[in-house]
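Subject: complex prediction, re-run

Hi both,

The earlier run crashed halfway through, so I resubmitted it with identical inputs.
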Amino acid sequence: MGNLFEHMGIERDRIHFSWISSAEATKFVDVVKEISDKVRALGPNKKLVKDYN
Amino acid sequence: MNTCINKIRELALELLDKKEVEKVIGFANGTIPLATSPIAITSKQDIEKLVFNSTCGLNLANYLRDQKGKIAVIAKGCDTRNIVTHIVENQIKRDQLFIIGVPCNGMIDQFKIAALFNDEIIEFSEDGDTLNIKSSLKEEKLYKKDYLRENCKVCMHKNPVIYDVLAMDLVEEQTLDNPYPDVDKIEAMDSDKKWQHFQDLTKNCIRCYACKNACPLCYCPTCFVDESSPQWVGKGQNKTDVNTFHYLRAFHCAGRCTDCGACVQACPMDINVRDFTRKLNKDSFEMFGWEAGLDITKRPPLDAYSPDDPDDFIK
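This time it finished cleanly. Structure:
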């Protein structure tokens, strides 16, 4: 699915997959931090957004 | 290919005569030249309506579901792969089918041919590798290999993979070093170019859903586009909705698509719908070594777990 996103022109770093146990709090923090860093670097998404106005 | 029609009619006649099958599903001439439409034949008088030529680009596997009794079907290489997919997905039982396999030399792209003429095509006939096409202004003699559909050019399964009887001798399969040159071309673009490519591709889409109706994989009783609670995707011509429809439909076909080209054939706006599914076919092949519809005993990759499945996308 990440590959299809990339193929259609949506940056690969916008979609993340992870498997985190409820006991792995530190892993959760690390993953969320990495995701938010990567997405922040890309800036707001303008593709596949529906404009309701 | 035009000689096999006699054999097809002979086989169909015999099957109906002996009451071995209730109906024969094949192709009949359409209402205009360069078009054929599916037909179900139940009586011997109609046998002459059966045709088989280079315009039989639709996929007859699409018409086999929800049938009672035994039916015969005329199937090209890709049709048989979709029949295998149907059997694996429990849409029909193997013993309900009598498959008349037709090794296929490719189907022609009617849009490409229509573009050569300024007026309407009024007559079409074919003789081996040459096509004779007539409009009221001119007559053209074309070579079939120059006007093959894009999916037929890269087809590596021309021969039926499953059949009860063959209507003609098997043809030679082609081997390609790179079966996915079109996908590579898109992959080489940067994000914005890719996005633009697909925006341009779908800009003419009128959402008639001919692609999903022609597709043998799209058999859900209610398609996600028709659901109203929840409504997954808007129903209008909004660009995002149009794109969502195409991407999601393609993803539903991941690991199942046989690249039969019925979607492209059915599209009235000449959209190359295959651009969406081809990437997933390539991924299935590269990640799972999978080509859909080749083996009646194997489950599709997204339906089965193996410890070897690639998992580098999960952190």
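Chain A has a mean pLDDT of 86.

- K.
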